[in-house]
Amino acid sequence: MSFAENLSALLNLRGLTQEEVAKAAGVTPGAVTGWRNGSRPRKAALENLCASYGLTQDDLLSDSFGLASKVETRDLDSLQIPVPLIEGIDPSREMGRASRFIAVPASALRNRPNAYAITVKDDGMSQKIPVGSHAVIDPDEPVPRNGSVVAFKITDFQSVDVLWTSGHSILIRKWYVGVSHVMLSPRSYREKVEDIVLRLEDAASSIELLGTVVWFQSAGDPR
Predict the structure, then answer these.
(1) Among candidates 200, 188, 190, 187, which has minimal Cα distance to 159?
(2) Alpha-carbon distances, residue 100 vs 94, 119, 190, 213 (angstroms)
(3) Closest CA to 16 of 98, 65, 83, 89
(4) C-alpha–C-alpha distance, residues 111 and 137, integer Å
(5) Which residues have CB under 8 Å from 4's CB, separation 6+?
(6) Which of 82, 136, 190, 193 is a plausible cystine mate for 186, CB 3.0–4.6 Å?
């Protein structure tokens, strides 16, 4: 498999655009077009791509062990690709300089180019997502579906009337929207965890919605 084929596999697996790949590599979109037509990246651009997407140079350069070869020989449920593992304090900034990655099934990341992972510290969904596991968050789903599990931060504690929170900055709850209210509902083994109920007009100023949790898995050693 050529570099062009491995690059195409990366774009398809992560749902990336050429502009996003160009930004990650530190080149122009025209350079990415050239790569897809058979040219090879310079060393700095290749290193930038590997650092941005948690890849090895073999993933992009190897005929036998590159991404394209892996896609041909394995189904998406068994193929693992890296996503950045971040603290989640400021995801938009942390994504660009992530130094740790975890391997996630490619099927969970299809068309989710900006997905990232956090280590779960909140026990609000402990019946489903254990504390200490890794949760993968898609920040690009604009409106979560009712019943989706979402990650969020409370930005105005005075307006959020809850008896007890875990004290962690990123909380995980089920998302429900009614006619006039948003409800963030726990599934926790800890009895004191209550629903968070907000008026629709207050939700945007009271919480920062980080995205939908699309996958979780036991914590392993990050790369």
Answers:
(1) 200
(2) 11, 12, 31, 19
(3) 83
(4) 13
(5) 35, 36, 37, 38
(6) 193
**Token digits of residue 178:** 């009614």
Tell me the chain's radius of gyration from C-alpha atoms: 19
| Residues 124-177: tens digit of each pLDDT | 999 999 999 999 999 998 789 999 999 998 887 666 655 445 555 889 999 999
Strands in 181-185's sheet, in edge-to-edge order, are 116-119, 134-138, 207-217, 149-154, 171-177, 181-185, 196-199
Which residue type is seen at 15? G
Residue with tokens 């968070």: 196
Structure tokens at 167: 């004290």
Calpha distance 137→134 (Å, rounded): 10
SS3 of 54, please? coil
